[in-house]
Amino acid sequence: PTVTSPCKILKCNSEFWAATSGSHHLGAEEAPEFCTALRAYAHCTRRTARTCRGDLAYHSAVHGIDDLMVQHNCSKDGPTSQPRLRTLPPGDSQERSDSPEICHYEKSFHKHSAAPNYTHCGLFGDPHLRTFTDTFQTCKVQGAWPLIDNNYLNVQVTNTPVLPGSSATATSKLTIIFKSFQECVDQKVYQAEMDELPAAFADGSKNGGDKHGANSLKITEKVSGQHIEIQAKYIGTTIVVRQVGRYLTFAVRMPEEVVNAVEDRDSQGLYLCLRGCPLNQQIDFQAFRSAQAAEGRARRKGPSLPAPPEAFTYESATAKCREKLPVEDLYFQSCVFDLLTTGDVNFMLAAYYAFEDVKMLHSNKDKLHLYERTRDLAPGNAAPSGHPQPLPALWVALLCLSQCWLGLL
Predict the structure, then answer these.
(1) Per mean pLDDT, which of 70-74, 142-146, 154-158 is the most reliable?
(2) 157-206: per-residue pLDDT in tens?
(3) Between the CA of residue 199 and those of 26, 97, 143, 225, 296, what are the distances in Å?
(4) CB neighbour list of residue 28: distance below 8 Å, 6 or more residues apart
(5) Please, are residues 52 and 9 in contact by the beta-carbon 8 Å criterion?
(6) What sequence ranges are listed for the domain Repulsive guidance molecule C-terminal (predicted)?
């Protein structure tokens, strides 16, 4: 069954947007009406406070309301009835194509210096994480976790179990908060959940709001309900969100300068795209394969262990993943891992699209493929891109024997 969040902050956001759209174009006599809508917005957030305690969009709305109260000199006491709905007037910023130079990252931040160095982070599948430093990890991270948390935006994912009682999890909810930035964009919240991939921000808009550089932040729908792209030119950032099967994938291209723009560096410990998953949340591929082998032997002795639906063997999972991922890199290994743990063929597509996003977003084409390193390889000795090196048969046999011996111990 689809997981439905009891937090109704998106409803509060949309009601406020509908009530106040275009009010900034009106005269000072309309300020009381705006304050009425703002008080109604605050009242709505208080009603959903209990169910929204861990929701980034909720906390963003609460802080935003306080700021707007001060900016418009609104009293917290007064009427809260909703004013009449408005329509956007002609020439609104939704249609503007001009933007000040400061709202174009490459033109403003690096006008007199070298081109910025871009980095990539991605999260997909059960879930697998590729960090900004090209570290690849498979993690548990059940529940809500911050992917990105810097001076310009916050990204939080929520991972839920794929099967009841299973340790396999996948991303069921994604929240992205773009913070208000100078004359470019207002604060904007994007939120996606299973079976709901909107092509607009939570307030119904598709760009950065009412500031002069609003179009330096835009949402584009690539495939309805399956693939959206967010361009944040004012910070040189591109974000791709997909729904593959029932779950979400995330990929981002971001300049190093933006990645590292954090005021409190002590709080970066759980910033997954930068620091990776905590050790106690990481899953070892090799240990998992050993466990799968042991489980396979147990199944052959008797039907004591239940198989997941559409169960794959290691051989059938490998064959299936090779259909879309011919290079046996970590994306291929992730695909095999996910088919074995979930039995859901959509996870093969998630790995495939994750690699397609890497090809589009990664700035170093020599680092598209990543390969599993072992303790016998010196740091940095990954196989060359696109052409994994076959290991000598004797070395493989010895490794397998050693793994089996360790398993017996």
Answers:
(1) 154-158
(2) 999 998 887 778 999 999 999 999 988 999 999 999 999 999 999 999 99
(3) 28, 19, 25, 8, 44
(4) none
(5) yes
(6) 117-363
Residue 83: C-alpha distances to residues 23, 34, 79, 224, 370 (Å):
11, 8, 10, 33, 55
CATH architecture classification, 101-281: 3-Layer(aba) Sandwich (3.40)
To which H or E segment does residue 146 belong? strand 143-149
CA distance 81 to 94: 27
Q: How far apart are CA 335 and CA 342, in angstroms?
A: 11
B/e letters for 63-93, b = 16+ CB within 10 Å, e = fewer, are ebbeebbeeeebeeeeeeebbeebeeeeeeb
b or e along 179-197 (b: 16 or more beta carbons within 10 Å of the residue's beta carbon)?
A: eebeebbbbbbbbbbbeeb
Asked whether 25 and 89 are in contact (CB, 8 A), the reply is yes
Q: What is the DSSP letter of 138?
A: E
CA pair distance 37, 175, nearest whole angstrom = 25
pLDDT of residue 65: 86
- Decide if 129 contacts 250 (C-beta within 8 A): no
- Comparing 53 with 62, the larger pLDDT belongs to 62
Q: Is residue 403's pLDDT more than 70?
A: no
- Percentage, residues of the chain above pLDDT 70: 72
- Helical (H) or strand (E) element with 139: strand 136-139
Q: What is the mean pLDDT of residues 65-94?
A: 61
Sorted by where each begins, the domain ranges of the chain are 8-72, 101-281
Token code pair at residue 7: 């937090």
**pTM of model > 0.90:** no
Contact at 8 Å (CB) between 189 and 13? yes
* Res 346 pLDDT > 50: yes
Secondary element (H or E) of residue 38: helix 31-47
Concatenating the DSSP letter of every residue in 328-363 gives -SHHHHHHHHHHHHH--THHHHHHHHHHHHHHHH-S
CB atoms within 10 A of CB 342: 25
- Counted residue by residue, the chain has a size of 409
